[in-house]
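Exercise 7.
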Amino acid sequence: MAEGLLRHLAGDVFEVFSAGTEPRGLSPVAVAVMGEIGIDIAGHRSKSVDAFLGQEFDYVITLCDGAREACPVFPGAKRHLHWSIPDPAAAEGSGAALEAFRRARDEIRRRIEGFLREERAARP
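Solution. The predicted structure, written as tokens, is:
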């Protein structure tokens, strides 16, 4: 969801990559809640953070506490950010899953919008 939101909100300002510490495949609930706001992530795929080891990034953003603990170090990053957002996948398969994914989507969007405001203000 974060990858889709950042691509949508920032346009071509950033080259966006996303990965997980325990990739489980693309959640159909994530696809559905992103579709509710007009963002199609159906073509995205779940990737392991290990696929990006050794690459340099300007920003590394972790989204849940478990990922923060398990995420490898990317020493070349200008900024490391952590947004403590509950993993909605924990609710998948329950009646609460849709709401959990909506809450996560909305919180990620709020955080990305704040991040983009800060970045725009910092640029000359």
